[in-house]
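User: Could you check the structure of this?
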Amino acid sequence: MVGVIIDIAIDKLGIIKYGIIKEALDKCVTEDCLYEPYLIWMGLNMGFILIGSFMVAYIEPVAAGSGIPQVKCYLNGVKIPRLVRLKTLFVKAAGVVCTVVGGLTAGKEGPMIHTGAVIAAGISQGKSTSIRTDFRLFRYFREDHEKRDFVSGGAAAGVAAAFGAPIGGVLFSLEEGSSFWNQGLTWRIFFASSVSVFTLNLLLSTYHGVPGQLSYYGLLNFGHFDSLNYELFELILYMIMGAIGGMLGSFFIHINYKLIVFRMRYIRARWLKVIEACLVAAVTATVGMVMVYLVNDCRPLGTDPTAHPIQMYCGDGEYNAVAALWLQNPENSVRALFHDEPGSQSAQTLIVFTLAYLGLSIWTYGISVSAGIFIPCLLAGAGWGRLTGKLLGHIFPDAAWIDPGKYALVGAAAQLGGVVRMTISLTIILIEATGNISFGLPLMITLMTAKWVGDYFTEAFYDLHIQLQGVPILPWEPPAMSIELNALQVMSYPVLAFGPTESIGTIVEALSSETYNGFPIVETTTNNPLSKAKDGLPTVGKLRGLILRSQLIVLLQQRAYVENGYSNDGTHLPLSEFRNNYPRYCEIKDIYIANEEMDKTLDLRPYMNPSPYTVHDTASLPRIFRLFRALGLRHLVVVTDTNEVVGMVTRKDIARYRDKIEAHGNIGVDELFWSDKL
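Assistant: Sure, the predicted structure tokens are below.
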């Protein structure tokens, strides 16, 4: 439903905007006042972008970009503040409308994934912390792992709605999102994706005046490919195009990375972010206007793919092919490059448009707007892919297997695959979006080649952005040569632990001075108080359990004090008290505790986890890594042979180890250090 609202808003506002620009262009071509349509074009772009950028910069900064890197981190087990709030949803939806209508080289498909994740998270909790309303629904799901499963389903539903690809949505969530998977989750996510596509179909058919005619597969409509037949020898051409896509994708990522670092250093103020976004909008309009003016590519109106044909200096019955690409929503331009008749654009038009659009896309992603990278990559790739088909047509003029639209599709897949480095899910998404399963092998070969070549030069686009944000996300596999590292070398120590019963003053002091999220519950050994681990590190006592910071906050809020150090069975706080506060717990500084309460006691035994995940102090880093990756852990207790706590391993402790290539091709392990400086 949200996707339909976004799509209709973009469609209606786009018709108004491009209609105004067309009218001004048609008028001023004969009256020699082309500066007027240029100023109108630039003013409309900057107006929409000013609104969208202001909302992102001043209301909800986490709504910037596509949101896919943040959702990927969340599904990996890392909590991203404000990622799935209701306010984020509104800013994301309104922001992406302003971005696309504002003419930036961006799309709405990526933000749809974030939108789906926010909706799923909100439904699963049955309450909204943004509007401070509790509907008292679905309390059972108010836990981290349950909420994460819903977010995984929401992300898949967003993909399904964007591309009309329910199976692709499931595979996207599996390949790019969830760290831990089970069979039951598979069918639930597939059901959510299917319902998403059905709902989108139903609403769009109603909007277009044919209710019940379910022919609107997704927000991005690639159109119907009559024939995608291919010869066996063409697979080599597809591999070459995949390699080109991988190299162009690496170039895209490298330059965009440099721009992001520059922004993080120098464009930090909110007003500067808004100014930069407006500058990009103005430059985009300028580039488009200059191309329309200088590249006089005239084509017969009979092959016009746009609703706003611009004649410019063309003859009667002709339109400007460059204007047809610029003066419509980018999704329509992608479809035009896929399905236009051969000869609809000149080679000069395709070259200039592809270079300009690729350069603007590199600059655009990372500014303070809600924007996706899928459409810019597809459009730039379709441009050079169609150019490839046109070149092959000149070399082999009588070859029946050459179809510029087919090569535009392969180029689009190669470009997108070279940037995002997805293989399985992107193959299925494109198969479902085109409705042609027979072309699956060429798409798969193209995407795999693009990934292999791209991985040789740079990391994947989303992974690099995650690193820039300093998020301790864990890759699929541990560093290759990390078997020599053990828990004692990786862990954090000394450990801040509590006894089974602890004074309020001790707990308040610990929570105020440290930001740890988990605390071991230990019982001090009287017969061997100076027990040490193998490297001489002191232990803090025998492990009895683990308690979370959020649990301690709730216990202090509810004044769950005990008499004589013990709690009666009837005085325990019920589980509902902890779920009611989830997921936003107050800070320790916001809880008022009188001085006379500091000497009172909390019995932690009824609330602690008596069997937390532990690892022996000699365990290797790969074993620890796989425990974190498979179970979505935030912390792991390190114990000795006698079950005494010697340290704690957190995500940051293991995420800082990376593979490095040493001299003569040797592979080693590099230890990074966390810093807020670039």
